[in-house]
Please model this.
Amino acid sequence: MNAIEVCKVSKSFGGTPVLQDISVRFEEGKIYGLLGRNGAGKSTLLNLINNRLFPDSGQILIDGQRAAENDAAQGKIYFMSEKTLYPRDMKIKHVFRWSKDFYGGFDDAYAQHLIQAFGLDVNKKVSQLSTGYSSIYKLITALCVPVPYVFLDEPVLGLDATHRDLFYKLLMETYVERPRTIILSTHLIEEIANLLEHVVILNHGMVCRDQTCEELLQSGYMVTGKASEIDAFIQGKEVLGMDAIGGLKTAYLLGERPQGLEDAFEVAPLTLQKLFVKLTSE
Amino acid sequence: MKKLKSTILLQIFQSRWSILVYYGVILLVFALNTCSAWFFEGREVSINGTEFSTAVFLFITAAIFMKIQFPFFLQNGISRRTTFVGSILAGGVFAVGMTLFTQLIALLAHLVSSNISTTFFAIYSERYGYHYNPPAFFEGLVWNFAMNLMFYLIGLFFSALMYRLNRILKTVVFAGLGALALFLPALDVSLGNGQIIQSLGRAFLFCMGLLENCNPFYAVATFLILGALFAAGEYLFLRRATVKK
Model:
């Protein structure tokens, strides 16, 4: 099966380890969420896969081919990064034109549709765009180049709520029409939670969770009730964390939900954001 | 192969306006010079230094390679190896094109006025009996091409070196070169009776072919060997270059 395989990869900067012996696999045709706190190593991992950095050890394969210094393998991925690597004086229409040249194709008709939908002026230069529109032209490129793997690092940076909503809608539309692997890395977890099929959570340079979104959310539950009753209930259980407001307490628990719990407490499934916060809290 | 071609085309595309402006300025200066010669009878039409200004232009074009084109190539999934080969081949295309155009301007000047004063002809006129003839034109083309290519490759090397060095090392390199240029002549005079400068001068004359019957092909060989060394240096710095934060 085609996939991007990251095998025992480590990377440090100036003696500070950023990624430690990471192994993760991104399979074809799935939407992944790559989550982590600031400094967890998400962008470093994406930069390593995309040949922008070199790992200190380990290897990365794209459909079985070595990722580093390999034009054929790199031609299968598009990485929309927060950092702009396009020349500042290049016009947006030329960004699209050269993307077509380098990637051997570009869906011009769809790009035109997206340009109109977002109201992007393609005659502007890269340096003339706001943060939001800078994200938009990169998103359009990402959605229009014919690659099986698309990495989106903070894809909605600077986008207003309307544009963010439009982007999520378009992302799902294109995914349904042409399934491919999409790896989303963002801090806006609540917004993308419904899109994700699989979640990889990085914490302190290591993989903290790597499982389907469904499995992850079913791995625990939240209970809310009187503080004293909650304290008694959680005895002997695996507790991710607690929140307390007044005399009420909410406990985030891992494990199977006991039968009949709803009669005594308010019970709810874990949300991805809550789970993420609890898993990655110090 | 397709990607390599795209890397070359991109570099040409990125430099198109600056090349047009560069030749526009040269042609404008030439036209003004010609007009003033018509107004003030007896004044000669001449055009000087276009070869060196073209070489310097190519150096500057190459010197921004790592800042502008390299990140763009990384964005588009191009390996450093392809980037390197593409940069050298683009340098070849620039050197050929700009050599031809610069020499055509010199030829035009020669047609307007018999007083031709290209740098190449000024250096090697003895070889051609002080007459600007077809051999002078064609050998001038080869000499110019080799010089332009070398300057482009020096620019690429400089660009890759500066990209890899941190701020402190950049300062050390610039200060070191400055100190060398400033103190070497003084040290040479006071300690070595000017032997170092004299040797360097002789080496320069030999490499330019001026000690060997004004043979420009010595200079061509020197330019190409130096160009190859700088290209190798560029590759050494480029092969492990990473995207900057």
